[in-house]
Amino acid sequence: MRCFYPYEEVGQTLPSNARLLLHEVRGATGVRVTAVSDAMGWQGAISYGRLATPSEIYEKLRGLGITHILWTPAMSMGYDMLAGDLKFLWFVERHAGPVARYGQFALGALGARPASDARFPEVVAYLGCGATHARGLYRLDELTTLPGPEPESQEPVNQFYPPPHEPIPSEALPPACGFVVREKSCRLPNPDLKGYRLLAERGDLELLTRN
Q1: pTM to 2 decimals?
Q2: Which of 1, 6, 7, 84 lies at 20 to 30 Å from 31 by C-alpha?
């Protein structure tokens, strides 16, 4: 009987001196190494959305002794701010690997330090109907409002969310737009998303990045 699957399998692959980051993983009985949770509301050391560059995320994790990361690919629980989700997902695609799968989880070793001049894509297109954020183009570091209760109506847009700095173009998104957040339930026409791919689903939202 496998009482702690897949955590026991994860633990069997890790060196005894590993320190494992649990990203949106609730408990990990059986991993047999020291584990650190990045869950918002349960710790105060890690806030991806407020770290400006990939190297800042790397230094934060290394400073906590993290050697490996366990997360669920293509899914976000929606606990973090949008900037936090986008930055974490972008980071692990490039700096956690090689990746092995264990059940629904992915396990990767924290890799080499990113180049000091490496930057996250700066512009995010929010394609929605205004339930929380208004439809438009945002700077990534503007999307730092932590999620809360859904507003009772779509009019007006929740006052706690920042306004966009530009409207959505009718045809193609600008080249600087590296991320897209799309409300799946919104039926408004969107610009062409060819050249983007899915990073994760977050409730009614799809988080996409440019290829």
Answers
A1: 0.92
A2: 84
